Amino acid sequence: METSIEEISQVKRRISVEIEAEEVTKKLDQAYKEFSKRVKVKGFRPGKAPRKVLEQYYGKQIVNDVKSDIIKESFSKVIEETKLFPLGSPSIEDETIRPGENFKYTIVMEVRPDFELKKYMGISVEKKMLNISEDDVDKRLEEIKEAHAKLISIDEHRGVKEGDYVIIDYDCVWKDSPLKGINGKDFMIHVGSKNFYPDLESGIVGLKKDERKDLTIDFDEDFGDKRLAGKGVTFRIHVQDIKKKDLPELNDDFARNLGSDFKSLTDLRKRVKEDITLQEEGKVDRELKSRLLKKIVATVDFELPQVMVENEIERSIATIKQNLLRTGKKFESAGISEEKMRQDLRRAAEENVKEKLVLGKIADIEDIRVEDSDIKDGFRELATQTGNDPAMLQQYYEKNNLMDSFGNQLLVEKVLNHLAQGAKISEVQQISENSQKD
After folding, report:
1. What ranges in 83-216 are assigned the alpha helix state H?
2. Which of 72, 207, 260, 366 is 20 to 30 A removed from 51 (C-alpha atoms)?
């Protein structure tokens, strides 16, 4: 086997491969021999059909199978020999296999660009000083209070208003026939949240307890629920109850009810401030590393592999589609052109790909690797964040083929930590505009 490499661009290579005639002939002879044992040819015993007969009836199939086998077997050897790792699926251009002749094919593939990083350690970068105020603590306490509020039925005889929690019975009718599966009993709606059918939420505003209403809603053709898409349906609604939030009072009793760690509201305030500080430290650290990475990336320019850019765009599109589907919409119903969205996402995708390549380059230069101990520490930290068992988390990741992705995340964080440790950091009250633009 002989190979030659042509550099089409900084990220694209064409590899010409030539397989010797002896190897081709050997593969063809073996294929015909094996095929004759399996196939039944009228007038001949199994394994006794002449080669010419097999060529006449099955030659094209056998030649294509041999060609696929030769390419498959030689491809891994080519990659190992050339030390080139393809990004995405390479394209194969081949010729016809002929006995007694060399077989040639070419591989066109994208590879990681080779580039030089002039400076990445000792970069000057600003870090925002932490300033946790009592107002921040008060705001978080209000959120905790909201989370521990109870729902109570309203005493006054009034209609539903935005913000209420309404208990309804409902079913859905289209052309005088009930729509199967679209009904509910003692179903609670938070009016104004738009977590249910928004038109239904607004349509029950003003209704009083025990009132009934038939509400007709027209759904778009591309509505996520196919049972409703393109239909004008009627919801038959019965208001069972109207509830509102009853907020607890912030005092020592409230604090003690949250757990034995808190003896008073003062203890709770202290813990809340510690939690906010920890969260803000994480945010400041992430922003610092982001600015640092952008400064390093700005010092180098190279061609980006389009397969990586397209994969990045596809991931973003998939996330957007999933988020829209949760609201019962698609791109079209939301007034979004998928093609336009792809164009809008391209620049961010290119920036992400460039950052990944730069981080990978630094990892190679500095010989930064993810060790088994890093994996264990990573799962312990994830367990602390999620409240799960580290071993169970690792089993889940292994079972769902998520270990490579998890390892890549840990490697990125390890490289960023290395860069931050070597950076010249200056703490400031406010990040300067010039630093934001870098």
Report:
1. 134-147, 198-203
2. 72
Residues 339-352 as b or e (16 or more Cβ within 10 Å = b)? eebeeebeeebbeb
pLDDT band at residue 298 using 50, 70 and 90 as cut-offs: very high
Sketch out the chain's domains with CATH numbers: 2-110 (3.30.70.1050), 150-246 (3.10.50.40), 260-437 (1.10.3120.10)
Q: Which helix (H) or strand (E) holds 188?
A: strand 177-190
Find out whether 293 and 416 touch, Cβ atoms under 8 Å: yes
Per-residue pLDDT at 347 exceeds 80 = yes
- Residue 17 tokens read as 């491969």
* Nearest alpha-carbon partner for 214 in 269, 173, 259, 257: 173
For 180, phi then psi, to 5°, come to -60, 135
Q: Which residue has the tokens 């490697």?
A: 411
Identify the pLDDT of residue 50.
80
> What pLDDT was estimated at residue 134?
95
Q: Which two tokens stand for residue 124?
A: 């000057």
Q: What is the pLDDT of residues 263-275, one digit of tens each?
A: 999 999 999 999 9
| 403 Cβ contact partners less than 8 Å away, ≥ 6 residues apart | 397
Map tokens 């590393």 to a residue: 289
pTM across the whole model: 0.74
pLDDT given at position 431:
86
Closest CA to 167 of 239, 230, 97, 63: 239
- Nearby residues of 150 by Cβ (< 8 Å), 6 or more positions away: 245, 246, 248
